[in-house]
């Protein structure tokens, strides 16, 4: 806005100066005053040009100002300073056009930068979400690590360590070796087994012979008892006289025996209650006790 106002004021002053030169001849004080004003204007324009050039990135190259093209327009002015001022105004107009081009370029760059800024904001939001996820994983990992350390400490206090386990394993190994040494080998067990089988067969043969002998003795006793029973039966028989039929008397021609004369013989005897079974059971029990491994006494 300052540039445009200065352009209008400078144009008006140049027009008024040209009209004044055409009408009246300037005096010496007026020329000095105009020269001083021109010097001030020139300094102001230089400062303005420096300010306009400051911070302007990559402006397009300036258009070459051909002063020969403006010579016909400046012929009406007889003052060299005014013509120089008009040339400066012309150059300034070209510079202002260049600055407008730079402004348009800067607007385009600002638009691109705005899009880039929006994209960066989206990227920052995504990065923030990723950072939050990583931070959450880190916190969970720290929590789990503390729990793992707590469990490890608990296990170290609850369970035995490697040295204790090794000592216990040595003790168990010694106990196992002692137990193995107290056991019979397979060859010794087979030899002992054959010996026990032979002893069982011999004992069974002895039992069979004893059983046969016992049966013979029992048969002899039975024959003796039968003979003795026959003698007692004939001696204890009493015949009742016929014709008596009182109460409590028997019919004629019947035989009456005294009480507890006939022996009571059971119809069946179990094998487990016999002497042969008890003897075989006792022999087998003793043999099994001898076959079992003998533990060493320390």
Automatic annotation (TrEMBL):
<dbReference type="Pfam" id="PF15960">
    <property type="entry name" value="DUF4763"/>
</dbReference>
<feature type="region of interest" description="Disordered">
    <location>
        <begin position="1"/>
        <end position="25"/>
    </location>
</feature>
<protein>
    <submittedName>
        <fullName>Uncharacterized protein</fullName>
    </submittedName>
</protein>
<feature type="compositionally biased region" description="Low complexity">
    <location>
        <begin position="1"/>
        <end position="22"/>
    </location>
</feature>
<dbReference type="InterPro" id="IPR031883">
    <property type="entry name" value="DUF4763"/>
</dbReference>
């Amino acid at each position: 806005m300052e540039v445009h106002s200065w352009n209008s004021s400078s144009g008006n002053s140049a027009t008024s100066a040209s009209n004044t030169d055409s009408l009246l001849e300037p005096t010496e004080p007026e020329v000095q005053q105009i020269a001083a004003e021109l010097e001030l204007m020139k300094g102001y324009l230089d400062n303005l040009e420096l300010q306009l050039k400051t911070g302007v990135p990559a402006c397009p190259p300036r258009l070459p100002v051909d002063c020969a093209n403006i010579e016909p327009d400046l012929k009406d002015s007889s003052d060299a300073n005014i013509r120089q001022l008009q040339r400066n105004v012309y150059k300034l107009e070209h510079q202002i056009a260049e600055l407008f081009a730079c402004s348009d370029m800067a607007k385009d760059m600002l638009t691109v930068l705005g899009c880039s800024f929006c994209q960066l904001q989206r990227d920052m939001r995504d990065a923030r979400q990723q950072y939050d996820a990583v931070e959450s994983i880190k916190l969970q990992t720290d929590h789990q690590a503390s729990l793992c350390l707590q469990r490890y400490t608990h296990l170290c206090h609850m369970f035995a360590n490697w040295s204790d386990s090794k000592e216990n394993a040595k003790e168990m190994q010694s106990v196992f070796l002692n137990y193995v040494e107290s056991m019979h080998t397979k060859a010794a067990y087979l030899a002992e087994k054959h010996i026990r089988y032979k002893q069982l067969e011999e004992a069974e043969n002895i039992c069979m012979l004893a059983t046969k002998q016992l049966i013979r003795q029992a048969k002899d006793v039975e024959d003796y008892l039968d003979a003795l029973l026959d003698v007692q039966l004939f001696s204890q028989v009493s015949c009742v006289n016929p014709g008596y039929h009182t109460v409590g008397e028997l019919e004629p021609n019947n035989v009456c025996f005294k009480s507890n004369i006939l022996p009571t013989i059971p119809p069946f005897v179990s094998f487990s209650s016999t002497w042969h079974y008890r003897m075989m059971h006792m022999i087998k029990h003793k043999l099994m006790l001898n076959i079992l491994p003998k533990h060493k006494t320390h």
